[in-house]
Amino acid sequence: MEEYIDNDLEYIFPIINGKVSTAINRKMFRNFRKEGLDITPEQWSVLYFLWKEDGVLQQKLCEATFKDKPSMTRLIDNLVKQGFVFRLTPPNDRRSNLIYLTDKGRGIQPAARRAMQATMHDALIGINAEGLERVKTVLKLIFDNVQEALGDNPRKP
Question: Which residue range(s) make up the domain with 47?
Answer without folding.
Answer: 38-106
